[in-house]
Design a protein that fits this description.
Number of domains: 1
Helix content: 25-40%
Number of strands: 4
Distance between the termini: 13 Å
Order of helices and strands: EEHHHHHHEEH
Strand order of the largest sheet: 1-2
Length: about 270
C-alpha cells in the first residue's frame, strides 16, 4: 500500500509542469510589482510629509488668503491632473520607476495579436542576407502570449523573450534556416516589426546591403540615453498599470488544472 497522500484525483508528488511553473512565476511577478508600487507610494508620502513639516517648522508656510480671494492661474498640466490628490513626489518616483530596466517587462499593447496585419516584407528572400537579425533583438511578450503557453520567456528577466547563449537568437529561431518555428503564434512585436528602416539591420534596404556583421550587431557602444519628458514617463506609468490589471485579470480567470487527471487510489479506511 502506498503511503502517499492523495487529494482528489491529483497526485501530490506528480512532477510540476512548465505551465504550473509559469503560473507561479506570473503570480510572483504581479506581487513584486504591487509591492514595488506600494513602497514607492510610502516613500513619496514620507517625502511629502517631511517637506510639509519643514515648511511649518521653519515658519515659511503662507497664511490663509482672505475670503473670496481669486485663485492664482493653475500651473498643473493635464498629465498632472490625471494624478490629482497624489503627491508630486509619488508622481515623479513612479515616472522614474517606469523608465527603469530592472523590473518586469511586459508588452503593453492591448491589441489582439491575431488582428495585426504584418508589413509585406519578403522574409524568405531576405533571410540569406540579413540572417534574421530581428530574431536577436530583446523584447517583452504579452499576457496573450503567456496565456497561450507557446512562446517561451526568460525566467531570470520576465517577460523578455527567451534567447540562446550560443548565438543570441530567440529560442524559437531555427539555427539552420533562421526561420521562425512558431510563426503562427509569434508575438505581437514580431508581427508589427518592419525592418526596412531599421539601421541595426540594413545599411541600405533597397540595395540589400546589411548594416554590419551579425556578430557585431549588439556588441557596439550602448545607445545614447535621452532625457524622457515627464508627460511621456507618466504615459508609461499608466500603460504599465493598465497592463498589470490585464495580467491580474487573466491570471485570476485561468485554472491550474486544464483537464481531469486520475491519481493513485486513495488509502483504504482503517
Amino acid at each position: 500500500m502506498s503511503d502517499r497522500e492523495v487529494f482528489g484525483t491529483s497526485d501530490r508528488d506528480a512532477p510540476v509542469t512548465r505551465a504550473e511553473l509559469e503560473r507561479a512565476l506570473r503570480n510572483i511577478n504581479i506581487g513584486y510589482l504591487d509591492l514595488r508600487d506600494a513602497m514607492l507610494e510610502i516613500g513619496a508620502r514620507l517625502i511629502s510629509l517631511t517637506d510639509e513639516l519643514t515648511r511649518r517648522i521653519d515658519g515659511v508656510e503662507p497664511l490663509p488668503a482672505p475670503p473670496n480671494t481669486p485663485a492664482p492661474p493653475s500651473t498643473t498640466t493635464i498629465e498632472m491632473g490625471a494624478h490629482a490628490g497624489v503627491p508630486t513626489a509619488l508622481v515623479n518616483m513612479r515616472a522614474q520607476d517606469a523608465g527603469q530596466q530592472n523590473r518586469v517587462s511586459l508588452d503593453l499593447d492591448p491589441m489582439d495579436k491575431y488582428a495585426i496585419e504584418s508589413p509585406e516584407i519578403p522574409c524568405d528572400e531576405l533571410m540569406p542576407i540579413c540572417q534574421a537579425r530581428c530574431c536577436r533583438m530583446s523584447f517583452g511578450i504579452s499576457t496573450q502570449d503567456l496565456d497561450e503557453g507557446v512562446i517561451q520567456f526568460d525566467y531570470g528577466q520576465p517577460y523578455l523573450i527567451r534567447q540562446r547563449e550560443s548565438d543570441g537568437y530567440c529560442v524559437h529561431n531555427d539555427p539552420q534556416t533562421h526561420g521562425c518555428t512558431v510563426h503562427a503564434q509569434r508575438p505581437r512585436v514580431c508581427r508589427k516589426y518592419d525592418c526596412r528602416n531599421d539601421d541595426r539591420v540594413w545599411a541600405d534596404y533597397d540595395k540589400r546591403i546589411p548594416a554590419s556583421e551579425v556578430g557585431e550587431m549588439f556588441n557596439g557602444p550602448p545607445p545614447e540615453v535621452r532625457e524622457v519628458p515627464l508627460a511621456e514617463m507618466l504615459g508609461r506609468v499608466q500603460q504599465r498599470q493598465d497592463a498589470l490589471k490585464r495580467e491580474k485579470q487573466s491570471l485570476s480567470q485561468s485554472f491550474q488544472e486544464s483537464m481531469p487527471t486520475v491519481g493513485p487510489p486513495p488509502k483504504p479506511r482503517v
